[in-house]
Description:
With 145 residues, the chain is mainly β. The protein has one domain. 7% of the residues lie in helices and 29% in strands. The protein is elongated, with a radius of gyration of 23 Å. The model has no long low-confidence stretch (mean pLDDT 78).
Amino acid sequence: MPTMVFRFSMPPNESLQAGNPTAIPPTGDKVYYCPTISHGGFNTVDNANHISTGIVYVGRCTSIRQQLGTNLWEIHVLIDPTLSLPQQTMVSSNFNVGDFLMFTKSTIANQGSLLGYYASVTFGNASPDKAELFMVSTEVTESSK
């Protein structure tokens, strides 16, 4: 399967994970490309070439490397077989400074739940006056580990 290489002069986001996309289930973060255009002094999504959202799914990350002796980083992505040849050519030949390369975490490898965690709360009233507790609520949100 063909691989696409994206090169950067800075290290990629440290939470990007490489994996084995041919494993069952596949591992490695899903990588997306989004071209931008300058509009009114801002970089915006280029919807002219991608009518729906401007975001193209490229494939799964297979490796992240720093070139020896340099400050250059490479992200290797196994191209998804459903990506058409014109889309492959567009992504590989048009990746420019200012364009976005995004990723999503694998839900198989990065499942989160509250299993094993608990909270113990004790409410007290040190006042000699009567007090009434109307309501107690909590909200738990999974962090981006």
